[in-house]
Fold this protein.
Amino acid sequence: MQNREKSLIFVVDDEEIIASTIAAILRLKGFDAVPFTRSSEALETSRSVAPDLLISDVMMPTLCGPELAHHIQAHHSNCKVLLFTGDWDRADLEIAAYEPGLTYQLIPKPVHPRELLRKVREMLTGIPGALVTGEDRARLRTMENMKQTIASVQAEIAITTARKRSARRRAADDSQESRSAC
């Protein structure tokens, strides 16, 4: 990563609404995200500033996502690449041409913003599931509380079962003593 406060992310999709929306989501979470609707513009911009991460649609006119990624990684080897596609069959063909020299991850399109953010953080930090959100922490706390509740219930069941066995043994012992006394 370069010497910047925020990670620079290029978001490239030939559909403006997608590129702009993804960039806006990333900016809301503290990233410096720049949307592009033409891969040639992203490539030109990468000549003066290196992105930390390229998020690109696979299928685009002129320069497809894998080709753009290949060119950017050739000049900026530390740039991570996240490709997304809505057409897995055609994506395989597009990516195959660049695969030997391309390091990337692929996600389906559309992607839920939460999943996108998780993947972006993971790629930039190299730590799976890094920087969990408050919602993720709340879910983890709920799961932990559920585990504690289940353990508590299991302990209560074990204690109750042990008491019942003990009571039956005492009753059986008392019954046997009564018969012996007769």
Notes: The two ends are 91 Å apart (CA to CA). The first strand starts at residue 8 and ends at 12.
